[in-house]
Design goal:
Blueprint: H1 20-35, E1 42-46, H2 52-63, E2 70-74, H3 109-119, E3 128-132, H4 135-138, E4 148-153, H5 158-168, E5 172-180, H6 193-203, E6 209-212, E7 219-222
Parallel strand pairs: 1-2, 1-4, 2-3, 4-5
Antiparallel strand pairs: 5-7, 6-7
Helix pairs in contact: 1-2, 5-6
Bound molecules: S-adenosylmethionine.
Length: about 220
């Protein structure tokens, strides 16, 4: 079936439609992928969710004629264990993000592949390496990542943030960037205090440069 025949007549994936939030994400990811295009290493997304940012990353890497590998990590079963550092009014629960809010769609690998098939023109498709499982279990033993130029970190919680930083920071090349989707300007977050705790614990005493995004209320770190 051709891409234009797959337009979501029978699907209500409104999350994936063009709106300000998605436009801002696009602008920000484009800017950071261009900034790191000459930096050695691959691109990694932690936290695939409904595949919204993945559609953008895939389109951009193909548009930029990138030769980098794109790895994506997710449990595809939603949140794992919640740490006490994650406590907030947002009240995250194990298994959240395993399904769409109306419970209609399971955010598993098959669903994400279908989303990519529906929402990406064939010219915007990019080879993707899916890594399924809880990050705290998978990542310390994952051997296929050597050098990294860009990380999109969108996993909300303390434990995966901690494990990502502990395992990926040494692999991030000089000039490489980590975009933290859940950490706001001023290193704070009402919804995801665990992400902030993991960030502060890991970077304590380390020399880093923190940047505020121009068009979104979150931050990225560049390795110097
Ligand atoms: C906010 S969603 C990501 C949204 C996505 N970037 C998008 O634009 O659609 C957070 C994702 O992180 C994943 N996640 C959270 N903790 C995880 C863990 N410990 N291991 C693996 N995946 C995890 C969840 O399954 C969920 O898909």
């Amino acid at each position: 079936m051709r891409y234009h025949q797959l337009q979501p007549k029978n699907l209500d994936f409104s999350f994936h439609l063009l709106n300000s939030d998605n436009i801002q994400t696009l602008i920000c990811l484009k800017d950071l992928l261009i900034k790191t295009s000459q930096v050695k290493g691959d691109v990694v997304e932690f936290g695939v969710g409904r595949g919204r940012s993945l559609i953008i990353l895939s389109s951009l890497l193909s548009y930029l004629n990138s030769k980098k590998k794109l790895f994506i990590f997710d449990s595809f079963k939603g949140f794992g264990n919640i740490d006490f550092k994650d406590n907030s009014l947002r009240n995250p629960q194990k298994g959240e993000w395993s399904k769409s809010p109306d419970q209609k769609y399971q955010y598993n690998v098959k669903f994400i592949k279908k989303i990519l098939q529906i929402h990406l023109h064939p010219k915007n498709k990019y080879p993707i390496k899916f890594v399924k499982g809880y990050i705290e279990t998978n990542l310390p033993n994952f051997k296929k990542l050597n050098k990294i130029s860009f990380i999109h970190c969108d996993v909300d919680l303390y434990l995966p943030h901690k494990v990502i930083l502990e395992n990926m920071w040494s692999k991030l090349s000089k000039g490489g960037i980590i975009l933290f989707d859940d950490i706001e300007k001023g290193i704070k977050s009402k919804k995801f205090p665990g992400a902030v705790s993991a960030f502060k614990e890991f970077f304590k005493g380390k020399k880093i440069k923190i940047y505020n995004l121009k068009n979104r209320n979150n931050i990225f770190v560049k390795k110097i």
